[in-house]
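Query structure, 186 tokens:
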């Protein structure tokens, strides 16, 4: 049985710390695809931590990880984008709440993968729209730049999510499956 998404213990705090550190340390790795926008493999980590530990852990790890990355790379935190990383991971973590989805014990079905993909894509698009709006409303960024930035980031994040994030979660669940088709001959 999965634990509550609001139950915090030492393991939860350590998981958040590891997720934030990994996301923060790897977010600078990417291929530029637009103004201040890159195709970043680190997005897959949001999918992994969200799906395996739930939306709250995903949100906090994504937010803190993005803040760490901003501080390490530029010294300035872009709060709209940091919150966007947390929102993305929280949406991806909604699959954690689905009945019968338990990758820790190898339990998932095709409908779970479909839901995970929908949650992830919706989360990516909504979080980046939020980030763009935040930059326009509070940071004084030009809207034409943000249209390009949000579009490029949405496309690249969806690609990374589908190519790396979804297969990683499926692979983890398959590895943890307790049943096999092997039999013992006596």
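Result returned for the query:
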């Amino acid at each position: 049985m999965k634990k509550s998404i609001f139950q915090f213990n030492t393991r939860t705090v350590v998981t958040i710390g590891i997720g934030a550190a990994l996301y923060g340390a790897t977010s600078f790795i990417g291929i530029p695809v637009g103004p201040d926008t890159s195709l970043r493999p680190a997005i897959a980590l949001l999918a992994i931590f969200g799906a395996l530990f739930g939306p709250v852990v995903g949100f906090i790890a994504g937010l803190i990880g993005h803040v760490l990355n901003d501080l390490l790379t530029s010294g300035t935190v872009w709060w709209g984008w940091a919150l966007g990383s947390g929102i993305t991971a929280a949406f991806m973590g909604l699959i954690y709440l689905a009945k019968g989805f338990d990758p820790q014990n190898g339990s998932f079905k095709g409908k779970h993968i479909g839901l995970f993909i929908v949650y992830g894509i919706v989360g990516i698009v909504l979080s980046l729209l939020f980030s763009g709006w935040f930059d326009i409303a509070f940071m004084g960024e030009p809207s034409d730049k943000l249209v390009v930035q949000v579009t490029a980031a949405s496309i690249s994040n969806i690609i990374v999510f589908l190519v790396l994030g979804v297969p990683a979660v499926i692979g983890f669940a398959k590895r943890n499956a307790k049943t096999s088709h092997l039999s013992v001959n006596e």
